[in-house]
Write a structure and sequence with these properties.
Layout (H helix, E strand, L loop, with lengths): L6 E4 L2 E5 L10 E3 L3 H9 L6 H11 L12 H16 L7 H15 L5 H31 L6 E5 L16 H8 L4 E6 L6 H12 L3 E5 L4 H6 L5 E4 L3 E3 L4 E4 L2 H11 L3 E4 L5 E2 L16 H4 E2 L2 E2 L12 E4 L6 E4 L2 E3 L10
Parallel strand pairs: 4-5, 4-7, 5-6, 7-10, 8-11, 10-15
Antiparallel strand pairs: 1-2, 2-3, 8-9, 9-14, 12-13, 15-16
Helix pairs in contact: 1-2, 2-4, 2-5, 3-4, 3-5, 4-5, 5-6
Bound molecules: 5-S-methyl-1-O-phosphono-5-thio-D-ribulose.
Length: 343
C-alpha cells in the first residue's frame, strides 16, 4: 500500500513512526526506556487505539533484556511493574489494558525457570498480539468493503487507518480493501481539531494509497450531507461499552447526530480488542482531558487570548441508538447491541 509501518520491534527495541511530525517528516524514534514509551503514548507519537495497544505490548519489554541475571520471579515482578505503569499512559482506549493484561497474565502463569526464558515467552506473546491486530484489520476490511459499491462517498473522522493500528487500520480498512478490488470510491476526511489527525495523518495515508480524498473542516459535515455528497460514515473507536455506546475522537458524536438527521448510515469499525465487556454503558467510560494549549493554538500560532477557560476532552461517547452497525473482524453487527459476551 506504500504506507510505512506505524511501529516495529527489532533486536529488543521498539521503534515508532513519530506521528507528531506527520506529514512533514517520516521519522522513526527508538524507545530507550519505559518512561520513553509512556511519554510517546501520552504525547501521541504513537496513537490510535490498536496501535497504542501493540506499542505497549512490545514497549513493556523495553530494557528488560539487560536484566537476565535476575531470578525468573524478580524479573517477572519487574515486568509487571513496567506493564502496569504503561496502562496509565492514556485512559480511554481499552486496547492498552487489553494487550497489557494479556501480557501480565502470561507472566503470572509462566513456569519459566529463568529470566531469559520468561522474556522469550513475553516477546512471543507481544508478537502474537501484533499478528492478531493485522488479521483483525484485514477481516474488518473484508466485511466493511461489502458496504462499499462503485461511486460510494465515505466520510471519516480522526485517523483510524494504518497509522492507528499495525495493519490496514479499522475505519479505513474497508476503504483500502474496496479500493484494491477496483471499486471506485472517494473519502471525505474531517480535519479533526484540535490535533488534526484527519488532515495530517488520514489524508497523508489515503493519498499514499492512491485513494481519492477530500479534506474538510469538522464543521462541514451537515453541509456535505444536506447536498447529498455523503453515502456512508465509517469511524473507529477507542472503547465500546457492553451496550454498544462508543467512545471515539471528539466530534464523532456530532457526526452521528448529523448522519441520523440526514438518514446516512453511520458505522463503527471495531476490532474485539476495542470492546470493553466489563463497562456496562458509555457513562462508565473515562474520557481523557488534554492540555488547553491544544485548543488555544494552531501549531505554533496562538489563536485565543491568554487566560481563556478551555474545555478539551479528547473523546466523546456516541450512544448506541445512533450507530447503524459495527464492523468487527467476525462480521457486521446490527442492533440490538450486546457485547457482554464478546463479538
Ligand atoms: O487521540 P488519538 O489520535 O489516539 O485518537 C484516535 C481515535 O480516536 C481513533 O479514531 C481510534 O483510536 C480508533 S483507531 C483505529
Amino acid at each position: 500500500m506504500n504506507i510505512p509501518e506505524s511501529l516495529y520491534w527489532r533486536n529488543n527495541e521498539l521503534y515508532l513512526l513519530d506521528q507528531r511530525l506527520l506529514p512533514a517528516q517520516e521519522e522513526y524514534i527508538r524507545q530507550s526506556g519505559i518512561e520513553d514509551v509512556w511519554c510517546s503514548i501520552n504525547t501521541l507519537a504513537v496513537r490510535g487505539a490498536p496501535a497504542i495497544g501493540i506499542a505497549a505490548a512490545y514497549g513493556s519489554l523495553t530494557g528488560l533484556h539487560k536484566n537476565f541475571s535476575l531470578s525468573a520471579e524478580d524479573f517477572g515482578n519487574k515486568y509487571i511493574s513496567q506493564a502496569e505503569y504503561l496502562i496509565t499512559s492514556r485512559p480511554t482506549a481499552v486496547n492498552l489494558s487489553y494487550t497489557l493484561n494479556i501480557m501480565i497474565n502470561v507472566c503470572r502463569k509462566s513456569v519459566a525457570d529463568s529470566a531469559e526464558k520468561l522474556y522469550t515467552e513475553l516477546e512471543a506473546q507481544a508478537s502474537a498480539l501484533h499478528n492478531e491486530d493485522i488479521e483483525m484489520n484485514r477481516m474488518i476490511g473484508v466485511y466493511g468493503a461489502e458496504l462499499i459499491s462503485n461511486g460510494c462517498r465515505i466520510l471519516t473522522h480522526c485517523n483510524a487507518g494504518a497509522m492507528a493500528s499495525t495493519g490496514i487500520g479499522t475505519a479505513l480498512a474497508p476503504v483500502y480493501t474496496a479500493h484494491k478490488k477496483g471499486i471506485k470510491l472517494s473519502v471525505y476526511a474531517d480535519e479533526t481539531r484540535p490535533l488534526l489527525q484527519g488532515a495530517r495523518i488520514t489524508v497523508w495515508e489515503l493519498m499514499k494509497a492512491g485513494v481519492e480524498t477530500t479534506l474538510v473542516c469538522d464543521n462541514m459535515a451537515a453541509d456535505l450531507m444536506s447536498r447529498g455528497m455523503v453515502d456512508l460514515v465509517i469511524v473507529g473507536c477507542d472503547r465500546v461499552a457492553a451496550n454498544g455506546d462508543t467512545a471515539n475522537k471528539i466530534g464523532t458524536h456530532t457526526l452521528a447526530v448529523t448522519a441520523r438527521h440526514f438518514g446516512i448510515p453511520f458505522y463503527i469499525a471495531a476490532p474485539s480488542s476495542s470492546i470493553d465487556q466489563k463497562t456496562v454503558n458509555g457513562a462508565g467510560i473515562i474520557i481523557e482531558q488534554r492540555a488547553q494549549e491544544e485548543v488555544t493554538a494552531f501549531g505554533v500560532c496562538i489563536t485565543a487570548p491568554d487566560g481563556v477557560k478551555v474545555y478539551n476532552p479528547s473523546f466523546d461517547v456516541t450512544p448506541n441508538s445512533l450507530i447503524t452497525g459495527f464492523i468487527t473482524e467476525k462480521g457486521r453487527i446490527t442492533p440490538p447491541y450486546d457485547f457482554s459476551g464478546g463479538v
